[in-house]
Design brief:
alpha+beta; 23% helix
């Protein structure tokens, strides 16, 4: 059974799974791309723009974040997602204002901080403006960003690009409401100028400190907000002479405050993140037996024996990648102890027992969150 919480930041919603206590190497928690697509489906699953795993760190961070889009693909980072993660961690652990987390992501170390008003301020790091780092085939232009004109669906669009650990293209327009987002956003996402695909943002400049934008996210389509996209949009607009280094960016789900610090070149994003509900998913959602869940295809062959001179030691295995279709070293599995505890729990408990355990855990967590917010015990 999968225990999760749903959070949203400006309407950009995510399913949060706490895997900080999992064994090293087990960093998918059995969530295959097919399962993630099912969970994020708004008719046949829970419904979300993505899924986030909180995992043990691999380097010097406090924890590691893996994020998956609704289509099962794994982006490098997500600004709204990491705000939701911070709020989720604070709610789970009872943290107070001023708490900061050092979070490892595929885009590098990101540091969110819980504010006194409940919002999250995130040090998003410095933008990537070198075309290869975005990545994009657009040439570096006079504004110091990758820029140019792209032919999209029969239209010529003047664009600028920036990276925030993930790729973004920004298109300034006179009227953002008039943009055919479904047509142009989908086409720009897969444009040849962006070899890793890209997030797409159309922006209207109301004033140098007030921008209005619409979002097409890579792997998710139209969303109500995008934190990394808001940062990239401010960078592009500032370099094009359209905006100041600090501005309020209006997204369909609400506003974000973005500040591009000239001293350290880092971008700081401030915005809300709120809990929606806590719940559990039973194995029945996958249509699988709990004892064999996670094995979509037969397991691959076992690895070759150790090289001479290694004292007979088998090579290390990254369970998250090598064993995605099943354990390839069943006689010496690095996660055997953790797996045996899970199997013992499953075999020794009825489905009703498991549901009761999960419900009690969720109820205690939800009660604690409400009591912290209200400042008094619930009666």
């Amino acid at each position: 059974m999968l225990q999760f919480s749903k959070y949203q930041g400006l309407g950009n919603d995510f399913l949060m799974v706490d895997g900080r206590a999992t064994a090293p190497g087990d960093d998918s928690l059995g969530l295959t791309p097919a399962r993630i697509r099912r969970l994020c489906d708004r008719r046949f699953g829970v419904g979300a723009d993505g899924l986030i795993l909180a995992l043990p760190p691999q380097a010097d961070g406090e924890l590691r974040m893996r994020i998956f889009n609704a289509d099962g693909s794994e982006p490098e980072m997500c600004g709204n997602g990491i705000r939701c993660l911070a709020r989720f961690l604070a709610d789970s652990d009872g943290d107070a204002a001023g708490r900061r987390w050092s979070v490892e992501t595929l885009a590098g170390r990101i540091v969110p901080e819980l504010q006194a008003d409940g919002t999250i301020r995130v040090d998003m790091g410095a933008p990537f403006l070198d075309p290869e780092a975005v990545p994009t085939t657009l040439a570096l232009g006079e504004a110091g960003i990758p820029q140019g004109t792209l032919e999209v669906e029969g239209e010529a669009l003047a664009v600028g690009a920036a990276g925030m650990g993930n790729p973004h293209v920004v298109v300034p327009v006179d009227d953002v409401a008039a943009v055919d987002l479904e047509r142009l956003g989908a086409a720009l996402e897969v444009h040849p100028a962006f070899p890793a695909r890209t997030n797409v943002h159309f922006v209207q400049v109301v004033a140098p400190d007030h921008l209005v934008m619409r979002v097409w996210e890579r792997g998710a389509g139209p969303t109500l907000a995008c934190g990394t996209g808001a940062c990239a949009t401010l960078v592009v607009c500032h370099r094009l002479g359209l905006a100041e280094r600090r501005a309020r960016l209006e997204l369909p789900g609400g506003p974000l405050e973005i500040d591009w610090d000239p001293a350290g070149d880092h971008l700081f994003m401030s915005g809300p993140a709120e809990a929606v509900f806590d719940a559990v998913v039973t194995p029945a959602l996958w249509g699988e037996d709990p004892q064999t869940a996670g094995r979509d295809t037969p397991a691959p062959a076992a690895p070759a024996p150790a090289e001479p001179g290694s004292a007979g030691e088998a090579p290390a295995i990254d369970c998250a990648t090598a064993c995605v279709n099943g354990c390839i070293r069943p006689d010496a599995c690095p996660s055997a102890e953790a797996r045996s505890r899970v199997e013992a729990l499953l075999s020794g408990s009825s489905l009703d027992d498991l549901v009761a355990m999960a419900t009690n855990s969720l109820e205690a967590r939800t009660r604690a969150r409400f009591e912290r917010e209200m400042g008094r015990p619930l009666e």
